[in-house]
Write a structure and sequence with these properties.
The complex is a heterodimer.
Chain A: E1 2-5, E2 8-13, E3 25-29, H1 40-47, E4 52-56, H2 72-85, E5 91-96, H3 98-109, E6 114-120, H4 130-137, H5 142-151, H6 154-158, H7 168-177, H8 185-194, H9 198-204, E7 209-214, H10 222-231, E8 236-240, H11 247-250, H12 252-266
Parallel strand pairs in A: 3-4, 3-5, 5-6, 6-7, 7-8
Antiparallel strand pairs in A: 1-2, 2-4
Chain B: H1 8-14, H2 41-48, H3 63-76, E1 80-84, H4 87-98, E2 104-108, H5 113-122, E3 129-133, H6 138-144, E4 149-155, H7 167-177, E5 181-184, H8 189-192, E6 202-206, E7 220-224, H9 237-240, H10 251-255, H11 259-271, H12 278-288, H13 291-310, E8 315-319, H14 329-335, E9 343-348, H15 351-361, E10 366-367, E11 377-379, H16 391-396, E12 403-407, H17 413-428
Parallel strand pairs in B: 2-3, 2-4, 4-5, 5-6, 10-11
Antiparallel strand pairs in B: 1-7, 6-7, 8-9, 9-12, 11-12
Helix pairs in contact in B: 1-3, 3-12, 4-11, 6-7, 15-17
Classes of the chains: A alpha/beta, B alpha/beta.
The complex binds pyridoxal-5'-phosphate.
Chain lengths: 270, 436
């Protein structure tokens, strides 16, 4: 679905159902350089089970117009505006990787708007490897190859996509490469590297929260994910074995099961 | 800092498969089953509605076939793949996913005979018309594009004349027109060429040939590069507009770089059903394990063969992109640096009769209608594979009566030569030699 946020045409996948603002809303926020397409194995399920779903494309990403936002703070604020733009008062947020920083920022800036928070492959800070950051800012495709290498566990490196016929590493790579790398991945990596509010915000969070972590995550290491969860009051933690950073695809079914339980309990359909 | 993702030879052995998810079985299990248990009704509904990944029914997907799909996809550098019962069904499925009645294709004229028949005779029955262009006529591809053209299709090295299509240039033409370039890469395999690196958007293979190498099983595959933007124009409504079959799903919007394969499976496999048997998928996978080793030997034997034939008194001409004076040699060196494959065409002195005598008197080389076996194969196209064509079509496809098509195998080179000497000896006096 296309709609305007701050006057700029924005795209969000509604999971294959028409958007209905009267149903409970779940907003999915993708990671660096990616788009709504990473969420397809979670969004359609909720959309066909009584929820309204928005897997947004951040400005300048995927099918959204405009320029990439330069800071995590701006992105968090923008998610708040998305919820308003579609005529909703509240939403549950689901973030992946950079999306975890963005959703935490959103809760900090708009606590009244957010019902629950799901953090996948998160950490309280995501400092970037300087070489990787520099490659991304120069639009060097090697940045994407490195990102795909770090982002995937055994499923990504050997194969075994939950959707028959798809090959993890190259799907991720093409989602990123279909945009100018420096304008999306480069800007996002810089925003992650600059962002320092994570720990402070995490300690203040006071809403139902869950962390879903991959045991073999090399982007945001398991120990950093656990540390973040420890900072958040009452946070649930789920660790998926044999899985890297892209749990939402690598182990899509397990991720969906965990998310389902959490959302149905904390943001049920009335 | 370099990515530690697996490289080609490793992928040929490992891509698409994790033993830990298959009872530790080191070799890939053959899932000889038609259907798969659902956990509960919610799980069943989710699978049918593409909300979750997984297998439902082997017409749509099968775990053994899935390994083959991922493996070829990994080797080609693609995002998604769909294996089919044969190379022909992969091509048919691709065109039926791409086109509607009233659409048009621009197609290289030098193709496998079966593919020519598909475009020339069968697709018009579905209202899909084709303009054929000679592979070397790069400008011709541009001129042939019409407002209703939905794609350009070709084999990189045309069969059987060994003329090269200038893939990088033709891909620019396709991009400008906002249509995908589809390459049948059967003769190259990803070992010799990865068409996505040269601008192709979709790749098809007959896996029956070099990919398997063992000549045991039929199979085909469609591979998607994830490079084509289906939403850039309004030419592909079935990809971009809500699809009734799945509650108004837009494949391009939802699946982006894998949209075409998702559509081909969800619609094409569901409705046409040319699914690959798991046993055949396994046989092909077994061949792919040694793809690099075999292709290297195919190519080195082919180079020696070109030299031998070029210097033979009974041979009128030799066509192989490595042959001295071949007009596409430079282009071949650029896009096929590891070798130009093991298909050779040559003219035998004495024309049609000599050709028949040669074929009937070689004993090691197998006379049959296939290419890309580990064994050396020979055929006389004018009287066999292309025999349904009339004189004019034959000429347009770059064929002549004296042409022998040779698929060089992995035998000891000296043994192939000794066999050919017998054939050439017989061909010199075709009337005096008993035909077998
Ligand atoms: C280049 C090419 N494409 C497609 C095909 C058709 O493949 P299959 O025989 O597997 O249907 C062939 C078969 O000879 C071929 O040579």
């Amino acid at each position: 679905m296309k709609f305007k946020v701050r006057g700029i045409e924005t795209f969000a996948s509604t999971g294959g159902r028409p958007f209905d603002k009267n149903k409970p809303l779940i907003v999915f926020v993708h990671g660096s350089g990616l788009s709504h397409m990473v969420w397809v194995l979670q969004t359609r399920y909720f959309a066909f089970r009584g929820y309204s779903v928005l897997a947004v494309d951040l400005p300048g990403h995927g099918l959204s117009s405009g320029k990439s936002l330069k800071t995590i703070e701006e992105m968090g604020n923008w998610i708040g505006d998305v919820i308003e733009a579609v005529g909703c008062k509240q939403a549950s947020l689901v973030g992946h990787s950079q999306g975890c920083l963005v959703t935490m920022e959103c809760v900090a800036q708009h606590p009244e708007k957010i019902k629950t928070l799901t953090l996948m492959g998160g950490a309280s800070a995501i400092p970037m490897n300087p070489e990787l950051l520099s490659l991304a800012e120069k639009s060097n495709p090697k940045a994407v190859d490195l990102m795909m290498d770090f982002a995937h566990g055994p499923a990504g490196h050997f194969g075994g996509h939950p959707v028959p016929g798809l090959y993890h590493l190259n799907v991720g790579s093409m989602i990123v490469q279909n945009k100018e790398i420096k304008d999306t991945l480069g800007v996002d990596f810089r925003a992650c590297d600059n962002y320092k509010n994570g720990p402070e915000i995490a300690k203040k969070l006071d809403l139902p929260t869950i962390s879903i972590l991959g045991a073999q995550d090399k982007m945001c290491r398991l120990k950093d994910g656990k540390k973040l969860a420890d900072m958040i009051k009452g946070s649930e933690v789920h660790i998926i074995e044999n899985c890297g950073h892209m749990m939402l695809l690598e182990e899509a079914d397990q991720t969906l099961e965990i998310l389902k339980k959490f959302i149905l309990k904390n943001d049920p359909i009335k | 800092m370099d990515p530690k993702t697996y490289k080609f030879d490793t992928l040929s052995l490992h891509a698409g498969y994790q033993p830990s998810k298959n009872a530790g079985s080191r070799q890939i299990p053959i899932y000889q089953t038609t259907s798969y248990m659902f956990d509960d009704v919610d799980h069943a509904a989710a699978l049918f509605n593409l909300e979750r990944g997984g297998h439902i029914y082997s017409r749509m997907s099968n775990p053994t076939v899935q390994v083959l799909e991922e493996r070829v996809c990994a080797l080609e550098g693609g995002t998604a793949a769909l294996a089919t019962a044969s190379g022909m069904s992969a091509i048919f499925l691709t065109i039926m996913t791409l086109c509607n009645a009233g659409d048009h294709m621009v197609v290289s004229s030098q193709l496998y005979g079966g593919t020519v028949n598909l475009f020339r005779l069968t697709l018009p029955k579905f209202g899909i018309k084709t303009t054929f262009v000679k592979p070397r006529d790069t400008e011709g591809f541009k001129k042939a594009i019409q407002p209703n053209t939905k794609g350009i299709f070709g084999e990189l090295v045309g069969n059987p004349g060994n003329e090269l299509m200038n893939m990088p240039e033709v891909s620019k033409i396709a991009k400008e027109a906002g249509i995908p370039l589809i390459i049948d890469s059967t003769y190259q395999t990803p070992y010799l060429c990865r068409p996505f690196e040269h601008g192709a958007d979709l790749v098809v293979h007959s896996l029956t040939k070099w990919m398997s190498g063992n000549g045991s099983s039929m199979a085909g595959i469609l591979v998607e590069g994830g490079t084509f933007d289906w939403m850039q124009n309004d030419k592909f409504p079935s990809m971009t507009e809500p699809y009734e079959g799945y509650h108004g799903l837009s494949f391009a919007e939802e699946f982006g770089p894998t949209a075409f394969t998702m559509m081909a499976r969800a619609e094409g496999m569901r409705d046409m059903g040319p699914c690959l048997a798991p046993q055949n998928a396994w046989n092909i996978l077994h061949g792919i394990e040694t793809l690099s080793l075999r292709m290297e030997k195919h190519c080195s034997n082919a180079l020696k063969m070109v030299e031998y034939l070029s210097n033979h008194e009974s041979v009128a001409w030799v066509s192989h992109a490595s042959a001295p004076g071949h007009p596409d040699k430079e282009l071949a060196e650029k896009i096929l640096p590891k070798g130009t494959g093991s298909m050779i065409a040559f003219g035998i002195k004495g024309g049609k009769e000599a050709g028949a005598a040669f074929i009937n008197n070689v004993k090691l080389a197998s006379h049959l209608a296939n290419v890309g076996d580990a064994r050396t194969l020979v055929i006389h196209p004018a009287s066999a594979t292309h025999s349904q064509m009339d004189e004019a079509t034959l000429k347009f496809a770059g064929l002549s009566h004296d042409m022998i098509r040779l698929s060089v195998g992995l035998e000891d080179f000296e043994d192939i030569v000794n066999d050919f000497e017998d054939g050439f000896r017989a061909a010199k006096k075709p009337r005096l030699v008993a035909n077998k």
